[in-house]
Amino acid sequence: MAVHLQNQINLESSFLRQDAGKNFMELSDIFPPIQKLVNQMASASIKEQTISYSVITENDVDAVIQLLKDTFFKDEPLNYYLQLGECKDLEEYCKKSIPDACSYKAVNSNGDIVGVYLNGIIRKPSDDDVAVPLASKTSHEKFKIIMQLMDYIDTKFSIFDLYPDIDAFIDGKILAVDPRYRGKNIAGRLTDYLIEFMKKNNYKIFHVLCTSHFSARVCEKMDFKEVFTLRFDEYLVDGKQVLCPEKPHVAARIFVKEIN
């Protein structure tokens, strides 16, 4: 009796497992098309949205920083290589040029910021000005490594040496676009707005320092001129290479565009 009952239990359990497996297979056959449909609907929604462009203001700071945390803070090659993590000093670095009123945002139909180009106005120092190293302004050890690279480049190259007749130039600092909105020329449109600002305000030189190969390719496609290159394997601290991001990111490169 006990054996018969146990056999019945085993048989029913087997049927249940088979049914469960069948149901799972049926559901697995159903879900991919549903997920594909959801993705298509989301993509269609994005395609239908209108993107507007305007100057970034202090009221946008929180939304701008959140977009950068989701993109640039994680994806920029040096940040990724160092696994930068939470960095309030980088947040402050991103905020400091906003008062110059030459940073631009892309906003979708829902009012969400989906792209930003942070830029600053760099003015020629006077003979009495004493340069303060960027690395001295941060206590974040990983961010300090990046700032030390910037300080080193400043000792090797100056836009004001290349263009001694200018009093100021525009520095393109950080360009970031929400991954869902890439491929829609948002970066190009943000750059167009900046160049229009430069023309209206008589800024002749647009300067960009690229640590990403892909950013450098964008500059090349937009007819920027490369004026300085520092390979990461040639930048040594105490005889050792300290920055070694994955290829194709092999150098820090400075590009300029002359605006007529």
Note down, in words, how this protein is organized.
46% of the residues lie in helices and 21% in strands. It is α+β, with helices and mostly antiparallel strands and 260 residues long. The protein has a 7-stranded mixed β-sheet with strand order 1-2-3-4-5-9-6. Strands 7-8 form a two-stranded antiparallel ribbon. A hairpin with a 5-residue loop joins strand 2 (104-107) and strand 3.
**Contiguous uncertain segments of 5+ residues:** 1-22
Q: What is the H/E order?
A: HEHHHHEEHHEHEHEEEE
Class computed from helices, strands and strand pairing:
alpha+beta
Order of strands side by side in the largest beta sheet? 1-2-3-4-5-9-6
* Count of extended strands: 9
Q: What is the overall number of helices? A: 9
Shape: globular
Beta content? 15-25%
Radius of gyration, CA atoms, in whole angstroms: 26 Å
Gap between N and C termini: 98 Å
In short:
The protein is of the alpha+beta class and about 260 residues long. The chain has helices at about 1-50, 60-70, 70-75, 75-80, 90-95, 140-155, 160, 185-200, 215-220, and strands at about 50-55, 105, 115-125, 170-175, 205-210, 225-230, 235, 240, 250-260. The protein is globular, with a radius of gyration of 26 Å.
